[in-house]
């Protein structure tokens, strides 16, 4: 017996809130990734880890907010806590791998392809692992083509997001990229859900696990509190908000010096210091006051 599936039992409320959660996590993660490209190597892992956690938390929250609107008319739905929160760990770890690749290798073609593929697979794994945590009186069946399309969407969205983070442009650029990223991630979710059908097993006792209402509070409080903390860190970082050069402390003499990586103006591409061309120095020949180029 096929169950009657409804993915929009609360109308447009859950899709809109889910999209905003994906955009929030994406915006914070992209800004943290951009910040990592502008600081000394000792600070880079911290910013990359914060960006990975922000993106992973935003995507995970988006998924389960959207799942609040998912119902099967003939059967109640419960969730297994272990698999539900394991999907959060998978999202953060795999997104972190992709971000660290781009953060240390730069926005090159190979790094973007590798990092985007790993990050996209992480998003898709989070989605289907979270779906595996559902407990209901039936089995979930997926359309293979729809599942494949959702994975491709996740990979393309992740690659585009990492490319946008590697451009090191202004905050408006990151906000625009996060809107596109949120749309792509939400589209990946609903694409995967479009290929889902539920085969019911007949009458029986309610499945074990927590109901959506019972798991909502811990699901929302933890990730949202973290996203709020990450937002505060990004907002009060003058290099991210205002641009310009940041002061860092020289460990040799304790004096504060200008940072080696100035923030480019909006629209400028980031060029590593090691690849910047400098003008040739000039020297003065003996007996001549006119400097000659080498």
TrEMBL record:
Region annotation Disordered: where it falls in the sequence: 247-294
Domain MHYT: start-end pairs: 10-199
Residues that span the membrane, as ranges: 12-34, 46-70, 82-104, 111-130, 142-164, 171-195, 215-236
Biased composition (Basic residues): 272-286
Pfam family, one: MHYT
InterPro entries: MHYT_dom
GO CC annotation: membrane
Keyword vocabulary terms for this entry: Membrane, Transmembrane, Transmembrane helix
Protein name in the entry: MHYT domain-containing protein
Native organism: Streptomyces venezuelae
